[in-house]
Amino acid sequence: MTCKIITYAIFLTFGYASAVTYQPPNSLCFPKNFFFGVATAAYQIEGAWNASGKGESIWDRYTHARPDRIFDHHNGDVTADSYHLFEEDVRMLVELGVQHYRFSISWPRILPNGLSNEINEDGIRYYMALIDELKRNDILPIVTMYHWDLPQALQDLGGWTNPIIAEYFLDYARVLFDKFGGKVRTWITINEPLSFCHGGYGGLDAPGAESSGFEDYLCGHNVLRAHGMVYQLFRDKYMDSIDYVGITLDFSWLEPATTSNADQMAAETARQFYFGWFAHPIFSKTGDYPPIMRKRIDAISKLQHFPRSRLPYFTREEIMLIHGSADFLGLNHYTTYLITKNRGNISSTPSFKADMGGIVSQKKEWPKSNSTWLKVVPWGFRKSLNWIRLAYDNPKVMVTENGMSLEKGLKDSRRINYLDGYLKALLMAVTKDNCRVYGYTYWSLMDNFEWTRGFSERFGLYEVDYVSPNKTRIARSSARYFTQLAQTRCIPTWNYTV
Ligand code: BGC
């Protein structure tokens, strides 16, 4: 009954009454203290790429130098212009009634050359104003230190492939803790190392190194070292002003394509490569890389006549430093893939895919989004959460991203349908399977620059009109759905005709 009254009040406030059908409290409710929020990332929303002392990032350089690599040759120079419009963003968050907002800080906006000898005070002022505005509105800031926009000056030194990056990341983290600690009490060091190491150093994302099976492993190694060092810094010096430090990893569910033993083993190996690569060193009982990953890459490197494994080794001290270095696991989950064992010969050219040994596909009949890779498969979410529970002794998990892209348009019932399916899968994982998930974050608050896909894929609860001078944001039907979810903590019953 209380639920009903609260939601009725919300509808009156925002005038959504005609859009939703109400139900009394039901079994589709999350625990009372469950967090609901939304996420964004600096390069994707801020714009102001060279304003007020900001340095150049690898995504600035890449989109300017290689527009051919980006859909429609777009870039993030202006995008949703949140650098100037952040108050409008907070107004939307208030309208949604979310408990938290996950956003990222642009490293080169704080340290233009990547190094801490020069701090850009305008950059500090910008994030301080955003954080203060969130706090004034009782919205908890959850801040990611690194969401892919490396200072170009550090890339010129080799970026994440140069071991010295770990020290520089530590210096950057110290600046953030000093400036924002106390106000920001939950931090995520790094977003999706799999994506930017594999995509950026093994593929076509910035910086476009295209050296799979080699530089992506160097990147991953240094990411893990850097993360471990920042966690250690937090434990040593900042326990008074900061409560939690975690890392965000992406995990698509990887289902065996058939029931054959070979495909089942291939799928488990793929999970270890795609997720265990970063999760095992931090969250497993033993630390270090997953044994199967170590074994396969060592053996294949040997066959390819490398004098040593392409996957670097941690020192004993590094294993200890990284092991257990997170208070929570931030999980980004969007979709599911099928894995078939690759029976072909191992090629002499190194690659992550060859090392992993599986062929990745998706079922044609799975419902589509507007991103080629993102198919709607809610059961994969529950399976991912349970796999994590079993593999790592049920760690605390915050879902830091989940969402669906569609084309332009305010009536996004397909997005609501996606949310309905994935939230039900999550609810089952929490209430029936006892997975220790304590929060859910939708990607994204609003449409934004979708990396190499430019502005062609829209994930927002709010639509952004990029051609309007003030980048007008308009609530989609899904924003109204999310308001009800965030305020009642129950999965709304939605009238799909809207
Ligand atoms: C990334 C976001 C991205 C989203 C949708 C995640 O992998 O963290 O930056 O926009 O997926 O592709």
Commentary on this structure:
- The chain is α/β, with parallel strands linked by helices and 498 residues long.
- 41% of the residues lie in helices and 13% in strands.
- The chain has 17 helices and 13 strands.
- It has helices at 2-14, 42-45, 58-65, 82-96, 107-110, 121-136, 152-155, 165-180, 193-201, 215-237, 261-283, 291-303, 316-322, 352-356, 379-391, 413-431, 477-488, and strands spanning 35-39, 100-104, 140-146, 186-191, 244-250, 253-256, 329-332, 336-341, 358-361, 397-401, 437-443, 462-464, 473-475.
- An 8-stranded parallel β-barrel has the order 1-2-3-4-5-7-10-11, surrounded by 5 helices.
- Helix 16 (413-431) links the parallel strand 10 (397-401) and strand 11 (437-443).
- Helix 8 packs parallel to helix 10.
- The longest helix has 23 residues, at 215-237.
- It is globular.
- Residues 1-25 have low confidence and may be disordered.
Topology (elements, then pairings):
Elements: H1 2-14, E1 35-39, H2 42-45, H3 58-65, H4 82-96, E2 100-104, H5 107-110, H6 121-136, E3 140-146, H7 152-155, H8 165-180, E4 186-191, H9 193-201, H10 215-237, E5 244-250, E6 253-256, H11 261-283, H12 291-303, H13 316-322, E7 329-332, E8 336-341, H14 352-356, E9 358-361, H15 379-391, E10 397-401, H16 413-431, E11 437-443, E12 462-464, E13 473-475, H17 477-488
Parallel strand pairs: 1-2, 1-11, 2-3, 3-4, 4-5, 5-7, 6-8, 7-10, 10-11
Antiparallel strand pairs: 8-9, 12-13
The chain binds beta-D-glucopyranose.
